[in-house]
Design a protein that fits this description.
The chain is an alpha+beta fold. The protein has two domains: 163 residues, Sandwich (Immunoglobulin-like), CATH 2.60.40; 51 residues. The protein has six helices and eight strands. It has an eight-stranded antiparallel sheet with strand order 5-4-7-8-1-2-3-6. The N and C termini lie close together (9 Å).
Length: 234
């Protein structure tokens, strides 16, 4: 894991905070972040950027079976045999433990039911504007045929314009990957013409401003607003 590659440390930090960095890769990253101040700072900055997105999510009510299981566990604790000693005979202590356990189970349930399973390996690009400030994150399962693009803030686009995503190969012309939803939408899911490891086998992605419906020529015609290197994280 070469963190000196331009943009890689920032991309890894973004994946870590988003939760798309999984398994052994996540464990290695955590070890590195504890000893590398620059990496720890990148994580902190991404947490600050993404907290508003998390706060904007609607609350998620767990299924009824989850509450039934929680209540059953609590009742089971309430009927457990008493241990000797004043400490364990304290009703306040048992209530505190039950409430703490309930809070932990509820928190864990929210995570499990709100976070879909993600692959341990993923393709990621952090797209920035001319000011080098990250604006969007594109990620995909290498074996999958969809690319998810998340904007870190609402993208303002005129009614007669659209944002078009392009793959930029080392040689040859840019290839269109599709249009991003305008009107303030922060997440777009784009169908790829082939598995991501093939469709995104390019050094960079870019987003240009085009007429509604996309470029009429099959190539970018408007200004390029955002660009980002494609990283393979594993």
């Amino acid at each position: 894991m070469n963190l000196r590659t331009p943009g890689r440390a920032d991309a890894l930090a973004a994946q870590y905070v988003l939760g798309t960095l999984r398994g052994r890769a996540r464990q290695r990253f955590e070890r590195l972040a504890r000893s590398d101040p620059a990496l720890g700072e990148a994580v902190r900055k991404w947490e600050e950027r993404l907290v508003p997105l998390a706060e904007a999510l609607p609350p998620l009510a767990p299924p009824a079976r989850v509450w039934t299981a929680i209540l059953a566990r609590i009742r089971g604790v309430g009927h457990a045999p008493r241990a000797t000693g004043n400490l364990w005979q304290s009703i306040g202590l048992w209530r505190g433990l039950a409430l703490a356990g309930l809070a932990a189970v509820v928190a864990l349930t929210a995570v499990l039911f709100s976070a879909p399973e993600r692959p341990e390996e993923s393709l990621v690009a952090v797209l920035s504007g001319p000011d080098a400030k990250p604006a969007l994150i594109a990620s995909a399962d290498p074996k999958g045929r969809y690319l998810t693009v998340k904007a870190l803030a609402p993208l303002s686009v005129a009614a007669d314009r659209a944002l078009q995503l392009w793959a930029l190969p080392e040689k040859g012309n840019p290839r269109s990957l599709g249009l991003l939803a305008a009107g303030g939408a922060r997440i777009a899911r784009i169908a790829l013409p082939s598995p991501a490891e093939q469709a995104l086998y390019v050094p960079q992605l870019a987003i240009s401003l085009e007429p509604v419906g996309g470029s009429p020529t099959g190539l970018p015609t408007g200004p390029v607003l955002f660009t980002g290197a494609v990283q393979r994280l594993n």
